Amino acid sequence: MKDLRILLKKAMLTLLMSMLCTVAFSQGRSISGTVKDTSGEPIIGANVTVKGTTNGTITDINGLFKLGEVNSRAVIVVSFIGYTTQEISVGQQRSFTIVMKEDTKTLDEVVVVGYGTMKKSDLTGSVSSLNSEHFQVGSGLTAEQVMKGAFSGVNISQNSGKPGGSNTIRVRGGTSISASNEPLYVIDGVPISTSAGLSSTKLNSNVDYFDEEAIDPLSSLNPDDIESINILKDASATAIYGSRGANGVIMITTKRGKAGKTQLDYSFNTGISNATKKLDVLTGDEYRSAVKNLNLTLDDKGDNANWQDRIERTALSNSHFLSLTGGSEKSNYRASIGYSDQQGIIKASDVTNFNSRINITHTEFDGKLKFDLNMSYGEQNTKQSPISNTVGSEMGSCILYEAYVFNPTYPIRDENGEYYDVPAYRVNPVSYTDELLDKRKSKKFLGNLSANYNFMKGFTFQVNAGYNTNSINRNSYISKNNLLGNGYNGYVSVQNLSDWSKVLETILKYNQKFGKHGVDAMAGYSYQYFYDEGNHESAYGFLSDVFKWYSIQAATTIETPSSYAECNKLISMYGRVNYNYDDRYLFTATLRRDGSSRFGEDHKWGLFPSAAFSWRISQEKFYHSKVVSDLKFRASYGVTGSQEIGNYNSLSTLSASSSGYIVGGKKITIVLPSQYSNPDLKWEETAQTDIGLDFGLFNGRIQGNLDWYYKKTSDLLLSIDVPSPSLITKQIANVGSVRNTGVELALNAEIIRAKDFNWSANVNVSHNSNKVLSLQNDKWVGKDMKTAPCQGQGLSGQYAQLITPGQPLGTFYGKRFIGYDAKGIEQYANNGESEVIGNAQPDLTYGFGTNLRYKRWTMTASFHGTIGNDIYNCTRNNLAYPSNLPGRNVLKEAVTSGVSRSQAKIFSSQFVEDGSFLRLDNLTVGYEFNVKNTFLSRARAFVTAQNLFCLTGYKGLDPEVNSEISGTGVAPLGIDYLSYPKARTFSFGINLSF
Amino acid sequence: MKTNKTIIILLSCVGLGLLSSCTDLDEVTYGRLSPSTYYQNESEALSSVVGVYSKMSNFYAAGGEGWRTGEYGTDELFCPGRASGGWYDEGVDQEMTHNCTPNNARLNSAWSTVFQEIGAANAVLESLQSSPNAASFKAMIAEVRALRAFGYYRAMDWFGNVPIFTDARVEASNLPKTNTRKEVYDFVMKEFTEAATDLPSVTTVNRTSYYPRFTKEAIYTALAEIYLNSEVYVAENHYSDCLTMCNNIINTKAYSLQPSVGDCFLANNENNSEVISAFSIDPSKGVGGNQYILYAQPNLDQKKYSLPFGPANGYCFDDTALKRYEAGDARLSLLEYGPQYYQDGVTPLCDSKGVQLNLITLVDATRMAAQDNEGYRVLKYSPVGATFSGYNGNNDYVMDRYANVLLMKAEALFRLNQSTSEALALVNQIRVRSKCTPWTELSLKKIEEERAREFIWEGKRRYDMIRFGTYFTNTWFFKQKAENATSDAWRGIYPIPAIQMTNNPNLTQNPGY
């Protein structure tokens, strides 16, 4: 009995003690430790969090961390970019020494492909990617400027220097003639439409002074929100997008939240810009003597002006960006707001951008069920300079045109303070800045919700729903007393366009490894609906300029308004299988079946297959190279399509026009056929073969890709001239084929990687050869298609480019100039017969960049350029002739080259110049401050120079130019006519993290 | 597990449901009509017929290549480049010096203007004729046939050997082929004659509510004109047919000469007693715009007529045409020449420097840099009383007027050697109306000159000059300085534009080009 009692007592005591201990142990206590790399160096800024909670911190300059309230059952997660994440059970330990191993990051790097992600090592297709580490946060650039020169095979050129302007992006050469060459943009898995905004370009043929560039489709995307950009280039990667993948796919993924400590980031940037170059027109004094020497009447007001100086200014810009990330392992979020205000270097032009974004991720069932919600809203307000690229007739004009041709002996205002004009046509350039208004407001909303459920081992079911809406509001006004208004007494144009699209996708994925075999498959269905509508009102005759577009009812005459609406649908089924044997042999096959309402009755559905194979030679047992540490061979073939053919082009329709006819004093609306049916209308089809080599040298210190590709696009959509007599002069049909073939090389090297000094560099070079193979099908024969109409008084009716089999797209075709005769008349080869005189396609495009870090200082520089492309300098073609005098000013060469006054303006090889260039896009020097013991977790300051210099022989303002002279919203390649000058910007910025 | 199984079944049901319901790719159109359902009644048919009228009104616009293709190359319309800037155009220069090449952009534009109208007529005609209500559209079908015949008449006059094509759609398998001028002539005559039988006469319609649609008499005027020019077109003598047509019109007694030529061209010229056919213009309602003032007048006319815009100082003529008028001719009031005054006739019209505008004859030899005051102007479409929207006036375009019928009859009689006294009386009617002294005898040269005085800038001079032969033999300012002072006979028709021949290999070029 006594023993039992003692036993019980002991037992209870032990139980009590252990309970106490358990209680004591299970309460939170603090832990600390050091995080180092394999060489013993401390890792600064590594994330240390308690798994499943928000309890976290980052390591300091000595790699030390301290965490409180840590349960002994907890697991701490240690992570840092470039190193493998580690998870360590806390248990009884209080002090930790954690050694982090480097990620051979490029091989395990994950790239985003269509409908999923893949490890780079498993890729069988050609994908170029860029991660956010390479982006300068807060640098005030647009998404396209960030991409410039960074990808092999992708040629991005700004169409002009206009703030908020659009870009021409070509992935492996352009293939389409009448359809768009734009790649497909997929933002967070939602393919967005890029045709919105094209309608706002053409206002009215009576008021062609206004800007005609389309809106940048990525204008609401703040580059500071971008996590990665992946460009899918070959058929194996793009065929999964079927009838939209032919021009390449640009996949943009935005930043997600991160588990751990809540982090607040703020960036600020401010800069000044100036024009880089001005055209060499005659000054007032030179004009005076030139006109006198030619014995012409001189209209002299005594001044000695340079009108380009008078309309340009030093522009200021600033931008702010704020982002908040946080969350736990289970759910995390990222919210961001950005605002930027950028003035244009031409007075009274500027653009302000506002964008906001929230990305939320939530997981349940231990990560088996995952929800992603992304929403973004952006607004862009531009005050546009009236720069028209189609100024042609006597009565047409725009601010840049006047700046070049207006009489340089005139002061800006007369003695009454009124603007000096020279009736009937010459309008004071400075008057455009306050008497012509053109405001465009563009709003974009993009939202998508996706749910992923891993319901069984290896199987995941995903549902995506996306919604995207854009609205554009463009208001333009010509003041009462401006000469351009010529009788209108105040002219207003109001244009509203909106479009929205919704997408619903359901995807089933399967991913499983069976010993050496791995299968990763998916099958899906997608339904996407696009709708757009617009209306346009114009009116004139106002009592006062106050009314503008705010009170259209105050106008004496309201022109007939117009409106339209369109929709189209896209339904697809698709599937992909990736088979991986022993990480050495990889096979991919994809198939997509697309149906689009745009195609004709007989061709509504199309099939787009692809197959690829890749062999990781370096994984083979027989492979023993130390130098070439990684070697992979890839080959792929596939068929993709392009359906950018506009809506309803296969139907026969009548439409009502806004003009009418009066019978017996009453107006009757005119209804006439507007289009004939083409039931054969189908998508453009591109078949692409790609052979590539991915390699890594010196254990990944240098890696690169080398690709050769061959693309043939057939069933080209062509807007063919219907021969007379036909009421409908153009018909869209699938006619002809184009081929692109080329080689791309990209290299990345980490040249030096030491404790205090890092130096890495990258270079990419591509060569693309483009050729039109044929322009005929069994029904139509197109031979020589003249495109790119020359603009400018005296040049209209001439065409600069020719599309013909055997020559590439963008071929310049005209007379070959050989010199002047004794009388100053132009002489041409072969009696003035036209021949091929140049080509807008480059022989080589390249980009290279370098990144240096020394202790706390960093320097990055990026260059890009082209070799061998030609540019038609239409501005020079207009201004290099003395026949313009005395009514219009001319370039200096008009009086020095010896050309006669009776020589009419002719398009010839004289004005097709070499557009090769090398540009230093971006040079940034930054400094990381030591923020130990402050409330900040990071502080960095930097100065940036953009467009510091551009080496080129081109005589125009800038060799990167694509002026929209066709009036369709899609600019032809390589034409320069009254392009907005490019700016050089110096800016200063800071990045702060709290 | 049970939960998993349920979820799988649920999800696959959803998936299957979606798959089966969403494969519908039918296009939904908004606001677009289909030709298979339109044309059910007269007002729907009329909406397309007026579309063809609207296209034909382009043949008379001041800008564009309709009207001026019938005037460039004559001795009464020039458009030189101006020293102050603008207006010089290589295509126009070729036309003025009789040196056209197939690459002439202006001629291609003229071709497109004409054949667009023909194409519209073909399309509308096909729709009307295949409609179940075709029987009630008889008169409108005749109108459209007449409209198409007008287009072919212009094409035959300017280009000679053009393709006759009457289908609405041009297919690659069925491209138009060139027809000879004679074939086109025969087609035009047949279409006009047959259309005229179904059209109402001016005596039977309510002129106010029917204006400006074609009446029989409008077609007869066109027929008379073509018959008069038949020797040029097909080397056949049809002057007696011309006489018949003129008499058809005169005998209706529905038309009479206005007190002044200018009355026909005023802004309120609807239902004028002299105008036989015209085209509606009213820019405030979105129906075209009369831009003659804009294109031709000197800039200072803005002050003279209190215009809301400054005219652009383009078209002009010189002493060759001015010297044809005798002193006292009332038609001189429609011309601007010499020192310019405000409408009161007394106050000098001066520029900002105080220098009075004095319009002189053309001097510039290069044709590229004429001074602003070189060249006289015609002011037929008067801005007085017109309502301007921007620079568009609302004067209707006049296609033909009664004065032409009288002069055509006089010429026909003269050429037939019949009743020269009646011919003389007719010509004198025109002369007396314009306060000129009546003649006592006639000659072809006199008839030509009277026509030139009466119809200056009305689009008739080119075929008149060709008919009288002066197009080829006369030399006037621009032609003297050009490479060929006299023109070859084959220059009587223009070349088929090269772009048209590239688009349609079935076309053959005209001789000489």
How far apart the termini of chain A lie comes to: 67 Å
The main pleated sheet of chain B reads as: 2 strands, antiparallel
Low-confidence stretches of chain B: none
- What structural class do the secondary elements of chain B suggest? mainly alpha
Number of helices of chain B: 20
Overall form of chain B: globular
Measured by residues with Cβ under 8 Å of the partner chain's Cβ, the largest interface is:
A-B, 97 and 105 residues
What is the gyration radius of chain A calculated from CA atoms?
32 Å
The whole-number mean of residue pLDDT values of chain B reads 88
* Number of extended strands of chain A: 52
For the record, give the distance between the C-alpha atoms at the N and C termini of chain B, rounded to a whole number. Answer: 88 Å
Radius of gyration of chain B: 27 Å
N-to-C order of helices and strands of chain B: HHHHHHHHHHEHHHEEEEEHHHHHHH
The total count of helices of chain A amounts to 10
Count of extended strands of chain B: 6
Helix content of chain A: under 10%
The quaternary state of the protein chains shown equals: heterodimer
Low-confidence runs of chain A: 20-26
Structural commentary:
- The complex is a heterodimer of chains A (994) and B (513).
- Chain A has 994 residues and is mostly beta strands.
- Chain A is built from ten helices and 52 strands.
- Chain A has a 22-stranded antiparallel barrel. A five-stranded mixed beta sheet of chain A has the order 10-15-16-13-14.
- The longest helix of chain A has 25 residues, at 2-26.
- Chain A is globular, with a radius of gyration of 32 Å.
- The model of chain A is unreliable at 20-26 (pLDDT under 50).
- Chain B has 513 residues and is mainly alpha-helical.
- Chain B is built from 20 helices and six strands.
- In chain B, α2 (42-57) packs antiparallel against α4 (105-130), α2 (42-57) packs parallel to α5 (138-159) and α8 runs antiparallel to α10.
- At the A-B interface, β22, β24, β25, β27 and β31 of A face α1, α2, α4, α7 and α20 of B.
